Amino acid sequence: MYNIAVLMGDGVASEILDSAVCVLDKVSSVYDLKFNYNYAPIGGRAYDETGTPLPDKTIEACLKSDAVLLGAVGDWKYDTLPPELRPERALLGIRKRLNLFANLRPVKVFDELLYSSPLKSEIAQDVDVMIVRELTGDVYFGEPKGIIKKTTLDNREIKVGFNNMIYDEDEIRRIAHVAFKSAKMRKKRVCCVDKANVLDVSRLFREVTTEVSKEYGDVELSYMYVDNCAMQLILNPRQFDVILTGNIFGDILSDEASTICGSLGMLPSASMSDGKTPFMYEPIHGSAPDIAGKNVVNPIATILSAAMMLEYSFNQKSAADSIYRAVRDVLKDGFRTRDICLKENKLCTTTKMTELIAEKIK
Ligand code: IPM
Ligand code: MG
Predict the structure, then answer these.
(1) 3-state secondary structure of 277
(2) Global pTM value
(3) Which of 168, 200, 227, 274 is catalytic?
(4) What pLDDT does 31 receive?
(5) Where are any strands of DSSP class E within 226-348?
(6) Phi then psi for 259, rounded to 5 degrees?
(7) CB 126 within 8 Å of CB 109
(8) How far apart are CA 148 and CA 145, in angstroms?
(9) Mean pLDDT calculated for residue range 290-296
(10) Pocket of ligand 1 (CB under 6 A)
(11) Which domains are assigned to the chain?
């Protein structure tokens, strides 16, 4: 029996989580696995229900579980709240609380979606990149931070905003190990992406990564500046195997990389700790309040996140593979949600896409 905390966020969260649960239920019957879902609110939904975006009860539900599945957070209607009450703060909070320092974002293009990619298909074909994004440090959490007032030389009072891009050696070392271990199981190449030509923190990131690489003799390490990487991901994404990078660069590059796959709605992610706390799985996309409740959101990113959960948290590789295969087969049959639908495809709703995928699980 696996206990899964299902963190219900905002916007399309309930639709995509229903989809993932529906597919997991099918997996459960085919593979004789038992899943017990424990629902808890997070983000704007939790704020509305309890006055705080990350209630203690939600954290407890996660800590009691074997894994956490999260539907996105955020809605414009919370934009005027003070920063500590905003939905995004809950997401950062739960990542920190569960010590989820390693975020794995696989960018793999389904052949069936090559024509939905804005890149030429000969560039997008066979792309298979693993972005290893550090998730609990960097400007996201660095202190000091804030917006303060200062007086200028000509005696005007103006505001200054600042955040601190900061990593210590231990934080860099542990994420570098994750990247090298991941590369060992793949094509054995790690590209460390940073801004070492300008930032001191990046120079340290490189230095420590280089040191860690000595423990992985069979993995080749290269370096790239983040601006160049943004360009290379579009020019020649196949050159990458594992991209190792910090929190903010990883955030930006993974959204960019998702377009190679045809849609932001296709990319899953796994966030991992040192093993003492449960791992968390979530689509890389946001809560998309503009399309919420319309039964049009692409559920595949969340369904694939559930597959990653089966693989990484429950060690059920063949069950996970059955989900990957089911998704591919449904795409092969020509069914598409709106975001990836071309003229020649069969447009379907979120629920229809989910049913089709669940049916194909064997
Ligand atoms: C992501 C998201 C989050 C992040 C936001 C919603 C706080 O963009 O998971 O990539 O910046 O990490
Ligand atoms: Mg992001």
Answers:
(1) coil
(2) 0.95
(3) 227
(4) 97
(5) 242-245, 270-272, 279-281, 335-336, 346-347
(6) -65, -25
(7) yes
(8) 9
(9) 98
(10) 74, 88, 91, 251, 284, 286
(11) 1-103+273-362 (3.40.718.10), 118-139+165-261 (3.40.50)
